[in-house]
């Protein structure tokens, strides 16, 4: 069994989560952490089955397993093999409910596994679109950024639009070291997206102004990335985090780990993804990044080192 080729990438949002749902720009990059899937044989029942999604016992969650099954069934149906009893095995390297795009990566891996097993011909655009539909099951109003990065595995500038999403590759002259730190608190993106929506309904002008401000930071960050200016990028990450806090999607646990990262030499640190718990990212100069990661490790946080590079292959 080769669980090698049917991969969905995890992602970090460098700048612009949440406001991206409201049509503003965001920048995201793939992680070296992926989800793999393969069709491993006929199911023992008459319908599609899926295992492995809940292989992390600490995370055992029947709702999660059920969700994986609903996602896999939707995929099989859309690909025209919904009546066939197949068994899909999933190997998740990515922690779930941590803002790292695990649900989109799951969808992409399962789509690729089924496409590959049945010898179907499906374009990457169609894979991303189907994963977007699956994301709709997970949380009602996805922007489309997670499924795009999960499919293409490249660093992108993204903007949602009904007339067709803007998706642009970003290049940077230097690779930028990143520490991902998990708060250890699981948080569902559906919940924080809902919280922002409720706030926006109550205070549309103020929320729109914050979204515009974040959009401006994303464009400044794009310029900093393109020039390879780590300290300018770090500064806009810090400002973006302050505005995410204003949107009330931070948490005491996120604030604690972000503060620790900044005090240990990070140039910028912010929550990434949905927030409310989940993960933070920090960037630092290449000669400081290990010490930032080490400080977080010693404080008991689970960390991953990755880097942002041109063509987005944040793969180590
Ligand atoms: C989740 O990774 C990013 C959010 O902006 C939601 C979305 O874009 O669908 C919070």
Fold and architecture overview:
This protein is α+β, with helices and mostly antiparallel strands. The chain has two domains: 163 residues, 2-Layer Sandwich (Ribosomal Protein S5, domain 2), CATH 3.30.230.10; 137 residues, Alpha-Beta Plaits (2-Layer Sandwich). 42% of the residues lie in helices and 22% in strands. The strands form two sheets. Strands 1, 2, 3, 4, 5 and 6 form a six-stranded mixed β-sheet that branches. Helix 1 packs across helix 2 and helix 8 crosses helix 9. The chain is globular. It binds (R)-mevalonate. The site of (R)-mevalonate has 15 residues, from helix 4 and helix 5.
Radius of gyration: 19 Å
Number of domains: 2
- How does CATH name the architecture of the largest domain? 2-Layer Sandwich
Largest sheet descriptor: 6 strands, mixed
Helix content: 40-55%
Arithmetic mean pLDDT: 91
Counting DSSP E segments of at least 2 residues, the number of strands comes to 10
Tell me the structural class: alpha+beta
The rough form would be described as globular
Ions and ligands:
(R)-mevalonate
Order of SSEs: EEEHEHHHEEEHHHHEEHE
CATH class of the largest domain: Alpha Beta
Supply the number of helical segments. 9
Which band does the percent of strand residues land in?
Answer: 15-25%
CATH topology of the largest domain: Ribosomal Protein S5, domain 2
Residue runs with pLDDT of under 50 for 5 or more positions: 312-316
Distance between the termini: 24 Å
